[in-house]
Amino acid sequence: MLLKDKVALITGAGSGIGRASAIRFAQEGARVMVADVRTESAGNTAAEIASAGGTANSISVDVRIAADVERMVNETVRIFGRLDILFNNAGVYIPKTVVETSEEEWDWVVDVCLKGVFFGCKYAIPQMIKGGGGVIVNTASGAGIEGVPRLGAYQAAKGGVVIMSKGIALDFARDNIRCVSICPGVIETPIAENCNQIPAGASQQIWSRSGMMHPLGRNGKPEEVAALAAFLASDQAGFITGVAVPIDGGFNAGAWIPPELMRNS
Ligand SMILES: NC(=O)c1ccc[n+]([C@@H]2O[C@H](COP(=O)([O-])OP(=O)(O)OC[C@H]3O[C@@H](n4cnc5c(N)ncnc54)[C@H](O)[C@@H]3O)[C@@H](O)[C@H]2O)c1
Q: Is the CATH number of domain 7-189+221-246 2.40.128.50?
């Protein structure tokens, strides 16, 4: 087991990548604090882990609010005795250019995706130092390392996560804390519904089109991202820090030109 006896705190764990990661981390032997602004979803993930024989608690948190995040970290330490892994994963998006984006929309996306990561690190790192070290995995995005149309606020936030993770890796390396970010391509989760960008249950319609954006010709699965996060959070990745790891079916490899456009005939 990759994470035996580790204590892991995962935000946005009521859905999608965070939910799959909470389940995977527990399968790998971690005790997991499942955190989400959707209290019921967080509870459902924790219950699913417990019914499979794992150890999990859930907590309601709005990662935009400092006091909420501080309470989340303190509760994790109170219940499980320590904090080894923080997976800052909660995120939202709005598909708009900067011209179309209102100040309120900018604040929502940047506060959840970037300020929330800042708060998580701010309150978790002192606890990790007390415990002798730890690992921080931050969910950025392919849109944090490549230009993507119509993601003005989201790109800014995710690019910020990538570079902030590198700085944190340097600042706390000698405290035995590793910090990395992960950069998914399109992953099949309910994010578009959760962010009110499409009607509930309509995700399936967009998957077939977005799959073709990736050289591998398909979207990713939350379980594939969970497997990467579990590896990066584990001692197996003990010499990896400060990197932004794409998990994107080749999206980040370069300009994608469909093979039919490259044929001579
Ligand atoms: N799905 C993709 O294609 C994709 C691609 C690249 C990056 N990402 C990133 O992956 C992460 C997880 O996204 P997902 O696809 O699993 O989406 P999701 O909507 O399934 O899960 C995100 C979770 O974050 C929670 N959340 C939202 N605002 C919050 C807040 N203020 N406080 C606490 N929790 C909050 C939501 O309730 C939800 O449970 C996000 O950071 C997202 O930006 C997703």
A: no
